[in-house]
Amino acid sequence: MPQHDRTAVVEEQAVPSAWRVRIRMHDHPGTLARIAIRLADLECNILGLSVLPVPGGVLDEIVLRPATGLPRRLLADAIRAEGCECTAIVDADVHELVDPASSTLLAARRAVEDPARLAEVLKDVLAADVVTLVPAAEANPARTESGHRAVFELGTGTALVARRQWAPFVQLELTRAEALVTLLGAAARNVAGPAVLDRPDGAAIVLRKGLPGDADAVAELHRRCTPATLFRRYHTGVRTVPRRWLHRLLVPPRGTSVLAVFGREVIGLGQLIPTITGGAEISLLVEDDWQRQGIGTALLARLAALAEAQGITELAADCLPGDDVLPRTAARAGLRVERDPENDARLRLC
């Protein structure tokens, strides 16, 4: 096919209910009207229209119902006859008939309700061929493939890479997708806000993010814990933690911590640390006097919610061989527990 005729046109035996047609044109009065007349001559019914500003003109995206038996090539030729460039003709689905603003808002709701489906939602918003979750270090945002590839950083050590062969992404679409990702980030941060446990004894226990200023309280937590509890957490004979450890416990690299606070005392500490494979490591420490009262379960449920908000679907934790405390806590938090077949002390939580 000659270079100037390389349009995303695929002939098919069955005519779909709708086509999505992208037309690049100069922003001159009457151009769109002439295109509409051409479409009417071909007995095409226009169902929706979106105008996407691009350098040097506009890109009109028209969703239409084609006449029975109309070849896509004939439609592309008619558009070119008006001095416009038909960049793509692809099948459209029912959701294409929703205006872009409503479609994006509906997509945002789906992503907020189920953060693990963000890649799927972004694929719909961009009408991309594929969206893949990768480690941020491997995303390579400078590689755009002439506009057919886009990268969206998630701020969790991961990124989403979108690809679309049928047409390059335009700036308005990328801005819309960036806004969606930003919204999901704000929703995730909101999940991390303080929460008060509903306890039958009325004790006001708050779950909140750990901060560097909590170092002294966390040090006291460790001093109040028995050697057995500390050994279960660290798998070594720790009685107190060095000062330099406290900051890493409260602000772990790439991760976050959640504290259970009663009055001014920290009575529990949980950590969530995303890994480069897309999962996350979790750990728990609960003061002896507060164990078996649902504190560990609440902390683990909170960590799981934070992970879900970041699109993380698999958690992992280390426990001592034969120790069933963490597995039972995870089960009470609503997580499915699996033992690593190659390491009995390794748990997978989903």
TrEMBL record:
SUPFAM superfamilies, per the entry: ACT-like, Acyl-CoA N-acyltransferases (Nat)
Keyword terms: Acyltransferase, Transferase
The keyword Glycoprotein is annotated on this UniProt entry: no
Molecular-function GO terms, alphabetical: acyltransferase activity
Xref: InterPro entries: ACT-like_dom_sf (IPR045865), ACT_dom (IPR002912), Acyl_CoA_acyltransferase (IPR016181), Bact_Acetyltransf (IPR050832), GNAT_dom (IPR000182)
Residue span, ACT domain: 20-100
Origin superkingdom: Bacteria
Coiled-coil intervals: none
EC number: 2.3.1.-
Alphabetized Pfam families for the sequence: Acetyltransf_1
Residue span(s) of domain N-acetyltransferase: 205-350
PANTHER family from the UniProt entry: AMINOALKYLPHOSPHONATE N-ACETYLTRANSFERASE-RELATED-RELATED
Protein name as it appears in the record: GNAT family N-acetyltransferase
